[in-house]
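Dear colleagues,

I hope this message finds you well. In preparation for our joint manuscript, I am sending the Peptidase (Hymenobacter jeongseonensis) sequence together with its predicted structure, so that both groups work from identical material. I would be grateful if you could confirm receipt.
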Amino acid sequence: MNQRFLHLVIGFICLLLAPGGARAQKVPLTRQQYQQDFDYFWNTIRTDYCYFAQKQTDWNQVRALYRPQLDTLSSRRAFVRLLEYALAELYDDHAGLGTNRLDSRRLVPSGTDVWAEFVNNEAVVLAVRPGLGAERSGVRPGMVFTQVNGVLVEEAIRPFLPRALRRPDAAARNFALRHLLAGDHLSPRTWTLRTDGRPLTARPDEPIMKLENITYPSRLEARRIGNMGYLKINNCLFDNGLIAPFDSALTALMETQGLILDLRETPSGGNSTVARAIMGRFIASEGPYQRHELTGEETQTGIRRIWLEYVVPRGPRYAGPLVVLVGRWTGSMGEGLAIGFDALGRATVVGTEMAQLNGAIYSYRLPNSGIGFNIPAERLFHVKGQPRETFRPPVYIDLKTAAKGQSAATDPVLGKALDLLAKQKK
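The corresponding structure tokens are as follows:
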């Protein structure tokens, strides 16, 4: 289940069960306290957010647009919505609040089931998340969205477009499209698409809104495909408890002639401890896997701070050929693993563009309301200097082309990986 949604539901239940129920709520903040929180929020982003150079956002204009609204704001709920709008001006899916409302947009990419972008001014489906509502309702790569909930796409995205841009930015339009398609936690989505000249109506949240309850058979799936090994990590790169079962599963596959590591379902990212533990099982000597840059230090002092992060070998090494699979739901630390294996020269990376989440996030908390927020504060790079968010797999699969004439059960990325390993067999 979406963690923010789960926390909100649990908190509401606890409130109802507490003595006095809703009357037990804290005293509302004063206007001055809301202003103090907003100023802390705005100033922190101004100094620490590390992607302004890649954005068209006028951050001073953001303050001019949103701070006056605090004069009529009287509830935490309304303040959360104002912060959501202000943060969306960055059009950055790696920046977010630590709380939400039931009518807040789902998180991208972890709470989504389809990835689309504007291509020649059409909202084209580029990828579909397996097993969820979009796929179940017939949506496939290459289709074109024409309406969302009965409204033409160009009109429907307007509420999600940033208002404080110096000039138009295609990335901001794609951000708005992603959040339009994500929907909220309450309202079932209805999509109209065009496929081969014919209309398709898709209702991805029927019979249930499954994105609020994404489940996996296990954290780690392990099996043999012929004489090849296959390991799939299911959205738990943030859990140090993954390390022991990963080691055990890899040990059981040590005699295979090649291995596939599937990172296509890691949208929530993770931590570098887990990532380094995984990479450490495949290398013979230590080496750098990614480069960091703390731009806030340069902003404040004029001195650049850049460093490399290393991986150290550990445990029995798997020495056979390795292929790493990535896609649109490979996020954050999953992306770090992909560029790390590539930098170490230890694996062939196969798939599509990843989630393209910016940098490493730092967490902050507003002094009065206690609302948390996260923003990218470190830029991350391939050791050769390429920004992580622009990394494209050396073996690229165009899912729009691959989907033609194939069923939803066909997995062209996995098929390509098996072909590559078969060619590398000794």
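For the figure legend, we might mention the following. Confidence is low (pLDDT under 50) at residues 1-25. The CA atoms of residues 277 and 387 lie 23 Å apart.

With kind regards,
E.M.
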